[in-house]
Amino acid sequence: RGPPQGCFACIAKPPALRPASPILAPASAGYLMESKSCQGDSLRPAGQCKHLVEKKTMTNPTTVIEIYPDTTEVNDYYLWSIFNFVYLNFCCLGFIALAYSLKVRDKKLLNDLNGAVEDAKTARLFNITSSALATFCIILIFIFLRYPLTDY
């Protein structure tokens, strides 16, 4: 049948997957040996190797620029957490909010944007809960101080 024709990627395929190629006459083999389109080809006409384009794109040097997400947009609710921890620490919810706010700051330094966003949501939830419950308790205290239970 003759030597296999094509580049290494075409020759390396099993015979069942390789396209059928005609056997060249010895007269045209000398001409084809001078015009090599793929490295290592000697008996293949120019322009038939589909891997030639891939070889050009694979050998071109590329520059990779890593762009980190902008973590300054993630709010850490740090001041709100400190206020809740010092003044409105209802059932230690202000302390938990402060812990999550610190976790947000750490994850922002590590460029973990997804983790920082999740912890920021949790810190906000604990801050809202702590603020609402502590405010509700303060309002109840003022109501009971203004209208003692002996009046009912």
Description:
The chain crosses the membrane at residues 77-102, 123-145. Belongs to the CD225/Dispanin family. It is found in: Membrane. The protein is mainly α and 152 residues long. It has helices spanning 8-11, 26-34, 51-59, 78-86, 93-109, 113-146. The longest helix has 34 residues, at 113-146. The N and C termini lie far apart (111 Å).
List the helices and strands in order. HHHHHH
Coarse morphology: rod-shaped
Question: How much is the average pLDDT?
Answer: 76
Using only C-alpha atoms, the radius of gyration works out to 37 Å
Bin the helical content: 40-55%
* Number of alpha- plus pi-helical segments: 6
Distance between the termini: 111 Å
- Strand segment tally: 0
Oligomer: single chain
Largest sheet: none
Strand fraction band?
Answer: under 5%
Low confidence ranges: 34-38
Q: Give the structural class.
A: mainly alpha
Transmembrane segments: 77-102, 123-145
Keywords: Membrane, Transmembrane, Transmembrane helix
Family: Belongs to the CD225/Dispanin family.
Organism: Casuarius casuarius (Southern cassowary)
